[in-house]
Every structure is written in structure tokens, then in C-alpha cells.
């Protein structure tokens, strides 16, 4: 065969788990025929006996290898010249061998000479770019990424796409191999420049594939069945709950003492959670302010005076004796609404318009964490550089009412507006306009499928309509799709609980 014959091909490695249930010639030949029937162009087969068995069953090109566990060398793949001879006799078209720079019984040059002498093609199984350079200089026909991740240290989870790309700079005859477990990863290897892609375990090691599914399913079952202690620490109150999935099994609200600090807040929560001891496996915490690498800081100290960089995750896991995860409260609510509420599992931006203004973004199924989504702190010259929450939130509405001579909190202002009071209507309209402009800009930044509006102000009757009214003039492809939040004040604890279950 010619080197070009392998171009653009999928190669299936038929090496069942050694000593496993499928480690028999009849299964190896069966895997080979099934792979070819489904579009594979070539096969990679271990041992001269199995090469012979497959050769008698199919005409496709066979890459042959022999695997050995030697006492005096770490090299396992085709270490001896005699292995090359046996594979050639059995009918292999290409012979692959370990090309790593390690103590070995036969040199790379000697192996290559023996392969060439039989008129066959060679594949050098490399662990790094230097292996590939040496193998090509010695005359190897193909270089493969086979040994990357198997020459010491922990086995990586992903295929070495970067090595494939780097090898492609040396030669077009690069075969991608090793830990390619999804069609997506195989396509990535092609994009990185591979001329052919070998897939093994994911297709022909039934025991391995079953154990991947088994592990994932058992972990998900135990996570689903174990409850989470979910905590939402706000500027005035703290909600503590026992949550399983979207079910809130029990909950309690305590005041957040503004004179105290995080140690005392956590102690008060622990006192409450004593009743649920033994019933939760992890802790999910949503907080006002910024969470960065598990540390908690205030973004607006007026909401709650949090010391800079408080080690919230470390303190909580110590106090509760369980793994803890912390996230900003609006980001937690954004995740809750995205997964289980009005976000409908689509790209979602969540805005909570309440005493202050918060937000969260979920794009491509992942929440943006850290500083992302703190929309209430956006400043613009048109608003005199004031943070948006200082000119649109419930707090601002009450201040504006007082300025126009009316002592009223947000709910009463809405009531007055509905009853036709012009001063109240102006305040509501101004807040809604500013939030509408924010929604317009959010649409340009993230193009979410839905902007979910929550919070006491956001869900006040008429407010969503007032925002929408400012956006009707936008052309349809620029207009945000606004929807009302559906999980209410529990969105934060539900979101934090679900994020905690995914993060530990
Ligand atoms: C390192 C080593 O000994 N690799 C061996 C080489 O033939 C096989 O165990 C792998 O199954 C083969 O490389 C395909 O890789 P994966 O099964 O990850 O798709």
C-alpha cells in the first residue's frame, strides 16, 4: 500500500480490554468488520495472532502492533525485531512501534530497517515533538500521538490536540491517536491537521465504555439524591434551605445583622442548620457582592459591609464539614432561572431589579462568574457617572419620591402610579427607561435568547410592560425577548444548590 492510502481516514483500533470478556479472535474480527461496515478505512490490531485472524476476515489496511510488558524496559509497543517479523508474516500493512526516547531492546533505526526490509510502512508512536523529529529523521513514514500522556505522570483526560498540530508542522503524515473518545474530539484532531484518526477504547473496549457511563450515572444519582444546604445571604435577610434538585425540603429566614461580620453570619446559619445535620452532603452559598476564587468582597459596601477577600468557601467548608461552593446571588438566580425557570435552558441574561440591581449571564450552558453580570454597577456619562442601581432601583425610587414630597417605598409608588398619580408615574417610567436601555445594550453584548426580569420592582405589575414599551421601536433582530422570572425569591438558593452539586 501507499502512504496516501490512509489519507482522510478513520482507523479503528480493535484491542479489547486485555483478559477481558471480549479478548478473543472472534470478537476482534467482529469489531473489525463492524468498524469497516460503518465507514472506518483501516484497523489497528494487537498481536500477530489477532492480525492473522483479522487478515483472513477483511481486506482493509492493518496497522499491526505487539504489546509486551518487559522487565528491563518501559517500551511496550513492538519492542523487538522478532515482533516486526511476526506481524509482517501475519499480514500487517503498517507496523507501529514505540518511538519514545527510553531504554529499549531494539533501536528505532533497527526497527525501521526491519519494517522496510519487509516492504511495509512504519508508524512511530510518539509522546512528544522530539520523538516525532527523531523518528522522521530516521525514516518513519507516519508519526502518531499515541504515546502522549503515557510516559510518566497522571494520565490526561483529553487527547493531545496541540501535539498533533505541532507534528503537522513537520510532516503531513500525522496520525492522531490516544484518548479520542467523542466524534467532536476526532473532528478536532482533523482540524489540527491529522491525515488519519485512530479511535480505540471508545469503540472497542466495552468494559471501559461501560465504566465511563457507570461512573457518570452513579455520580449523578448520588448527587441528585443528596440534598444541599443552600444559603442566600442578602443585605437585610439570609435564607437558609435544604434543597434537592428544585425541591426546597425545608427553609428558614434569619435577619442579616448589619453590625456583625461574615464569621457571625455563618455562625447564625450553622445554628439554624443544626436541625438539618446529616441531611445534606454539600453547601451552596449565594451572596450579595463579588465572589472570586472562593473569596468574598463587597462591590457596594452600602448593601453589606463585607471585609475584602473574606475566605468564604474555606470557612464554610470548615464550619459545615462539607464541600462548599459560593457564587454571587444574582448569578445563582440566573443559573436557577436558566435551568429550572423562565430561561428555558436557553442563553439567558437575568436581571433582578430590587432594592439594588443585580444580574447574571448564562451562555452556551455555562454561567459567567466573577465580576460578569454586575449590571447595577454600570456607569454612563448620560447618567452623570452614577451606577445604574443608584438611578433606577427601588432605593432610588423611594429617594425620588421623597424629593417630590412623597414619603413612599417602591410598592406604594407603584400603587400611586396605577391610580394615576403623575409624580409616581414619572418615577416608574424613568426607572423602566433606564432598565430598557440596559436590556438593549445587553442584547448587543450577549444576544441572549431571553432576558429574564426578576426582583420586587422587576415583577411589579406593569413594570415589564413599561420596559418593553421602550423597546418596541427596535428592529426585530435587535430586540430583546423579555420574560418574567418564575422561581421568585428561591431562584438564588435553587441555583446555588445546583451549581454546588456540579462543582464538588
Ligand atoms: C498508550 C498505549 O498503549 N496505547 C495503545 C496503543 O495501541 C492502546 O492501548 C490504545 O487503545 C490505542 O492507542 C488507542 O487509543 P484510545 O483507546 O485511547 O482511543
From TrEMBL:
Catalysed reaction, written as an equation: an N-acyl-D-glucosamine 6-phosphate = an N-acyl-D-mannosamine 6-phosphate; an N-acyl-D-mannosamine + ATP = an N-acyl-D-mannosamine 6-phosphate + ADP + H(+)
Keywords, sorted A to Z: Carbohydrate metabolism, Isomerase, Kinase, Transferase
InterPro entries in the record: Aldolase_TIM, ATPase_NBD, NanE, RibuloseP-bd_barrel, ROK
Molecular function per GO: N-acylglucosamine-6-phosphate 2-epimerase activity; N-acylmannosamine kinase activity
One GO cellular component, as annotated: cytosol
Record bears the keyword Disulfide bond: no
Purpose: Catalyzes the phosphorylation of N-acetylmannosamine (ManNAc) to ManNAc-6-P.
EC top class named in words: isomerase
Pfam short name (any one): NanE
Enzyme Commission no: 5.1.3.9
Coiled-coil regions, chain positions: none
Name under which the protein is recorded: Putative N-acetylmannosamine-6-phosphate 2-epimerase
Family per record: In the N-terminal section; belongs to the NanE family. Belongs to the NanE family.
Keyword Isomerase (UniProt): yes
GO biological process, one term: N-acetylneuraminate catabolic process
Pathway involvement of the protein, from the record: Amino-sugar metabolism; N-acetylneuraminate degradation; D-fructose 6-phosphate from N-acetylneuraminate: step 2/5; Amino-sugar metabolism; N-acetylneuraminate degradation; D-fructose 6-phosphate from N-acetylneuraminate: step 3/5
Amino acid at each position: 500500500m501507499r502512504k496516501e492510502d490512509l489519507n482522510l481516514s478513520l482507523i479503528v483500533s480493535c484491542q479489547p480490554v486485555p483478559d477481558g470478556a471480549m479478548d478473543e479472535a472472534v470478537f476482534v474480527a467482529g469489531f473489525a468488520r463492524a468498524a469497516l461496515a460503518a465507514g472506518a478505512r483501516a484497523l489497528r490490531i494487537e498481536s500477530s495472532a489477532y492480525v492473522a485472524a483479522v487478515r483472513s476476515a477483511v481486506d482493509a489496511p492493518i496497522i499491526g502492533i505487539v504489546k509486551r510488558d518487559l522487565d528491563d524496559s518501559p517500551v511496550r509497543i513492538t519492542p523487538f525485531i522478532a515482533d516486526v517479523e511476526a506481524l509482517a508474516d501475519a499480514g500487517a500493512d503498517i507496523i507501529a512501534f514505540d518511538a519514545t526516547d527510553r531504554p529499549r531492546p531494539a533501536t528505532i533505526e533497527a526497527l525501521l530497517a526491519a519494517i522496510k526490509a519487509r516492504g511495509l510502512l512504519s508508524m512511530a508512536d510518539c509522546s512528544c515533538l522530539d520523538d516525532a523529529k527523531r523518528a522522521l529523521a530516521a525514516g518513519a513514514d507516519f508519526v502518531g500521538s499515541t504515546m502522549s500522556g503515557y510516559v510518566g505522570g497522571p494520565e490526561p483526560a483529553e487527547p493531545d490536540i496541540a501535539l498533533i498540530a505541532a507534528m503537522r508542522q513537520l510532516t503531513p503524515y500525522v496520525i492522531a491517536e490516544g484518548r479520542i473518545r467523542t466524534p467532536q474530539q476526532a473532528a478536532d484532531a482533523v482540524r489540527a491537521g491529522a491525515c488519519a484518526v485512530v479511535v480505540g477504547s471508545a469503540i472497542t473496549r466495552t468494559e471501559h465504555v461501560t465504566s465511563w457511563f457507570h461512573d457518570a450515572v452513579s455520580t449523578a444519582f448520588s448527587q441528585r439524591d443528596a440534598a444541599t444546604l443552600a444559603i442566600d445571604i442578602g443585605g437585610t435577610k439570609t435564607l437558609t434551605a435544604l434543597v434537592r434538585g428544585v425541591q426546597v425540603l425545608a427553609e428558614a429566614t434569619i435577619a442579616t445583622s448589619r453590625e456583625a461580620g461574615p464569621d457571625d453570619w455563618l455562625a447564625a446559619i450553622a445554628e439554624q442548620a443544626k436541625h438539618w445535620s446529616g441531611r445534606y452532603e454539600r453547601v451552596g452559598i449565594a451572596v450579595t457582592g463579588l465572589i472570586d476564587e472562593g473569596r468574598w468582597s463587597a462591590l457596594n459596601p452600602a448593601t453589606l459591609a463585607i471585609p475584602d477577600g473574606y475566605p468564604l468557601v474555606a470557612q464554610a467548608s470548615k464550619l459545615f464539614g462539607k464541600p462548599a461552593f459560593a457564587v454571587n446571588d444574582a448569578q445563582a438566580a440566573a443559573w436557577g432561572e436558566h435551568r429550572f425557570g423562565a430561561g428555558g435552558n436557553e442563553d439567558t441574561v437575568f436581571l433582578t431589579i430590587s432594592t439594588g440591581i443585580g444580574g447574571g449571564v448564562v451562555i452556551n450552558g455555562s454561567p459567567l462568574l466573577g465580576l460578569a453580570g454586575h449590571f447595577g454597577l454600570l456607569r454612563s456619562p448620560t447618567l452623570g457617572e452614577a451606577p445604574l442601581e443608584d438611578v433606577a432601583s427601588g432605593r432610588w425610587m423611594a429617594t425620588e419620591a421623597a424629593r417630590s414630597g412623597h414619603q413612599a417605598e417602591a410598592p406604594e409608588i407603584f400603587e400611586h402610579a396605577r391610580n394615576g398619580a403623575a409624580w409616581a408615574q414619572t418615577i416608574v417610567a424613568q426607572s423602566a427607561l433606564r432598565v430598557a436601555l440596559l436590556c438593549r445594550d445587553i442584547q448587543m453584548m450577549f444576544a441572549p435568547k431571553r432576558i429574564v426580569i426578576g426582583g420586587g420592582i422587576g415583577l411589579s405589575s406593569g413594570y415589564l410592560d413599561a420596559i418593553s414599551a421602550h423597546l418596541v421601536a427596535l428592529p426585530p433582530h435587535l430586540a430583546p425577548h423579555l420574560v418574567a422570572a418564575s422561581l421568585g425569591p428561591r431562584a438564588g438558593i435553587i441555583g446555588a444548590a445546583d451549581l454546588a452539586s456540579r462543582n464538588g
